[in-house]
Amino acid sequence: MACEAAREVKDPFKTLMKRSSMPPLIIGVMMQVFQQFTGINAIMFYAPVLFQTVGFKNDASLLSSVITGLVNVFSTLVSIYGVDRVGRRKLLLQACVQMFISQTAIGAILLVHLKGSNSLDEGLAGLVVVLVCLFVMSFAWSWGPLGWLIPSETFPLEIRTSGFACAVSSNMLFTFIIAQAFLSMMCHMRAFIFFFFAAWIVAMGLFVLFLLPETKNVPIDAMVERVWKQHPVWKRFMDDYDGKEDVKNVGMII
Description:
- This protein is mainly α.
- The chain has one domain: MFS general substrate transporter like domains (Growth Hormone, Chain: A), CATH 1.20.1250.
- The chain has helices at about 1-5, 10-15, 20-35, 40-45, 45-55, 60-85, 90-115, 120-140, 145-155, 160-190, 190-210, 225-230, 245-254.
- α6 (about 60-85) packs antiparallel against α7 and α6 runs parallel beside α8.
- The N and C termini lie close together (about 10 Å).
- About 35% of the residues are buried.
């Protein structure tokens, strides 16, 4: 019945621009933008180049990127198991801490030890690979899958299609920007590129801490009453939401 009611909305993009639609729209778009500014795509796209930079040979750098890919796949299983047991916010906040430590540690190692020959000794190069794997691991059970899950839970049915279209478009746009810019940024900023992404991870953690509500075990049709109207920030946006249109549409279908 709720899906049928959602189809009755004639102009979903106009509805999306209403003040009461801003909380899920802002969260949906920012989750996708922040997902890219973790630096994950930059690291996964250019892992062989990165590992060559710290001293691995061609075959070893490819093997290292395969290892990070496997870590990515298997760590996603942690999210599948834990997302409804631990909760979304805890996974995201824990990952922010782990990603921040990994990024800053990699940046510090490269800043201090990367010589003019663009290589590290074997022990430090292996440590960089471990830190990259820890970074990928934390992303894979948090911002990777939850960047898609949370918007799907927060948009009400009547604007879910239009809202998700905006969120996914943001993802594709910033994927393109990061992919195009990362190699040049790494060449110019060198080790400081990791501090750049670490700063974004701090911003992401603050966003989750203050603006992202917990959506575990909250049905989509209960989001307004149980989440938005109770949140200390987003409840201010609910003054033009009364739910009358949804009730009318469902009543017509019944």
